[in-house]
Amino acid sequence: MEGQQDKEPKMHGDLVVNPNPLASQDVSQLSRSKILAPPQVSDPPPHSPPPPPSPPLASPPPPPPSPPLASPPPTSPHSHVPGPLALHLPQPQSGNSYVLKCAWTYSIVAFLITSAHALIYVRALVKGGEGKEYIEFLSWVSKPTCCTSMVISFLLQPTNTKANYVVFLHLQYIILTLGSEICIVLLAKLKLEDVLWSLLRCVIYTALFPIGMRIRARISRLEASDLSDFLSLSVIKNGLFVGVGQLVFLALSSVQCENEKSLEGESWYECKRSLYSQTGLGFQVGVATIVLLLSGIVPSKYLDRHVLKVEKIVAMDLTVDEIVQVICLTIAGGCGLFLLGNYGVKGDFSNDAEEFFFAAVTVTGCVAVVVTAVWKAVVIHSEVISDEKAGREPESTRTLTGEPLTELSMFWVGLGALAASLFTGLNIASAVINSRITKIVSISSAPVVIVVFVISVFAQPRKHDRLTMNLLRAYFFIFAGISEGVLGARAISRGNFKWTVIHAVRLAIDAVLFHYGLRARAAIGRLSDSELHEFLTCHLFVGGFKMLAPILFIVFRSLKCFIEREAESRCRNSNACALSISSYLIIWWFLGLAQGSIKKEWRDQLDLSIEKVVTMKISWRKSIEGILLAVMVACGAFLFALMTSKQHTSGLVMTVSFAGLIAGIACFVSEVYTVTKEQVRNRSSDTQLERADPTRAVERVDCCSWWYVGAAFVLTSSYTLLQLTYAIVLDDGLLMVGYMLLPIAGGCMVISGYLRPKDEGLGKKILHAQFFLFGVLAAVLSCIAYLRQGQTLLALATLGRIPIWLVFYWLGLKLRRKAAQLQPSELSDFLCRKVLLGGISGMAPMVFFGFEALSCITSNGGLTDDSCKNTSYAALFLSVYVAMITVVSMSSKVISRAERGAALTYEQVATLKLSRSQKLQGYCGVFAAIASMYLFSVLGVQGKPNKAITYLGGAGFFALAFSSLIEGYKLSRSTSPGGSGELSTTTTTIMPPANQTEMVQTNSRNGLIMAGGLMSERRLSLGGIGDNMVVAGMV
């Protein structure tokens, strides 16, 4: 026992320190939980340092003088085996740190969130039971968040067995369950039925608590490395940040509906649909989060056995376990999409059947997730018991036979035929019965049927026998011929010859597309086995079903006006928007199919690197395709914003729809022409093209193209032009538009500073002129406008912005010079990834927020309509937040990797072992995230202006600005390794070989693998907030 105790890791507070970090690198792929499986030893990872030459590894030396890598890992059931975490260069003195329990702060936060459920009932009791029914619904809104927080509380400190913490958990659980039930009984005035239901729930709660304590005790016996990963990644990152963050967002959005209705003087009953949708989504997210948390204690090798593989789904070669997973996950996904599509729908249920249907969808989705989890748990537990009895090591992931797939299962062909038949039946029913419901369903289901039908056509591209081809033609005749014929006949019977011509033209277009589709099918069948396998699995199957998710969401969203029983004209506009957006998504999918239909050697010749895009060394056809794609995407975003419009905007909808559709079709035709031309050129060539080397040297970039400089200059100057117009006409509506354009113009100004960092000639002169127009002239024009309106204080405040802009511009020039001093490889990566891609990624949500405000303005009383001020201010603050995050993220990469040093990890966040500045940034970031979630829920809300939006948005702005100033201060004080500052420590993360292989395979095509980025999911920093912020991910 003494020998074993000497090998235990040393404990320092909440962390376990491994006294010999290099010794832990010889042990990899250990079981995640020694509860379910004994620790097994496998081969050392390839990054392990070589063992010392003496004594040899073949003969284990005596324990005391054993070198680190020669000693076998302890196999005692009471010993901790540290897993691989990070190897620091230079070697740290204290070794690796493991998290054994999270900070008390998280427990207090979870306690406050959990107690909110009982406080809702206490508030109702204080008011004497007023609004009892609304309080009941409000409690259901908060229940998913509170229950998930309670589960997280059980897992935050599993090793803490002190009496005070155990009492704390008991108290938290009692407040959530017994406290709430007592309030419910008192509100019901001791009615027998309510008392019995409360007693039944209390019995269930009493049975669940010891189960939670047993799970907590089992987790406490995990290995130190496994427990650290579980707490930092599963509990803190996936559970608290992502899971609870989404639940809080859903709760805020649902409460916002009630606020809107109260401002409009309507009853909260008009929000019952939104409350039911939010509650259903919340329970599904909560159940999924809890399942994800508990799966963190299962050995990874057992989990890998039950991961659904695309190849097996495509070939329909599924076991019973996999069939259960597919069915349950499909049901859960469908229920979630239905609730998400009805999210935000206003109005009360017309009858009890509708209310029961929403509740049934919620229960079905949650039960499907639970059944999947329980089934996998039972199967994995039986496998663990079987392996323990046989005394064998868990096998790795089951692999396929290795033979590439050359055709999909007949199941998918039959599914396409069934979908086409059902679609035709709906069209016949809508023509004969003339029912509004059948007409709506047939129109809304058209995009879904198209995707499934295309998958069935290309499912078996090497089958060209007469039977197969005749069946495909029959499917097309059922899908297009009969449907268009029936609809055309109905139009003729009604004397509507315009729609008769439209149906005839559509049938002709469908026939042409089907003809060329069969020719493309024959060309795809000539691909090699491996290339055909990639096309069928990645481009056709995965790409198609990835398109189905947003299409279904759009379809459910378009049904919102029908459910709310709005006017026919508004529902027609909403349906037109949904069909147009679905068409854009299908065109996007068709572009991927066209690119995947040629050989990989030829496709590599057509691929564009990001370096070529940055320098605009591309053909004119590719440039036009990019512009057309941007137009199509912009039209789709604007149409999505118009879907919630309450006014008649059919002319605007049709104009934007046709503009995006023409741009998408033109882009697709250009891509098909390029692919066909490449096929003809390579087939006529006598020599075989060599496969492009993925490891070839990539052209380094030191400046961006002048095209981007000009585009940024135009966007920035548009703000100045708008201020000039406002100073002349004095229209308050233009002032609101100027506020909406300000974040975009400011972001373009920052991007312009980094586009050509080494250009001290014309590029710098253009930058000075751009800043003068944006920072000085625009402020002067605004000041003149305010003086003309007699608002002297606002005029002085506007002039006060000029010195602030000058200070920021001076700092920007310093960072620009610092960017010019980066190493060529780092400068190229900075310009390509952060400036161009990061800048565009930041502009996208800002444009979307602007479209939300613009759609409200165009569909109501114009720019001066007060009913759109809520949406406009929310969009303004959200755009400002995104602009600030983009600027900080971009500026942080100006500092070289050596100067930035080691990034903040989730292990540090879990224990809150942070510096004072990091804690301040964290508090500000959390507050800004909550403010942004509230503002995002306000988008689309119309009614009387709400001052809380301005106050909360301004507070979030100052919090984010303060955090950004701290980050800028730290960047300004960073020192290089060769300077006078302290030596920065770089971190090289050790990963298991399986994860390394998977990540390299995923990123090999782009060649973006860097030594410091192999474990980016462990890092958390303001510079990478685009990948870590929950709100940005949901947007």
Tell me about this structure:
The protein is mainly α and 1035 residues long. The protein contains 35 helices and five strands. The strands form two sheets. A three-stranded antiparallel sheet has the order 1-2-4. It has a two-stranded antiparallel ribbon with strand order 3-5. Helix 13 (436-457) packs parallel to helix 18 and helix 23 runs parallel beside helix 25 (762-788). It starts with a helix and ends with a helix.
Task: Give the tags.
single chain; 1035 residues; mainly alpha; 3-stranded antiparallel beta sheet; two-stranded antiparallel ribbon; 35 helices; globular; disordered N terminus; disordered C terminus
Number of helices: 35
Q: Pairing-aware structural class of the strands and helices?
A: mainly alpha
Describe the biggest sheet? 3 strands, antiparallel
Question: Count the strands?
Answer: 5
* Percent helix range: 55-70%
Strands ordered across the widest β-sheet = 1-2-4
Assembly annotation = single chain
User: Residue-averaged pLDDT, rounded?
Assistant: 74
| Alpha-carbon distance between the two ends | 55 Å
- Rg, rounded, reads 31 Å
Shape: globular
User: DSSP strand (E) fraction?
Assistant: under 5%
Low-confidence stretches: 1-96, 397-401, 686-695, 976-1035
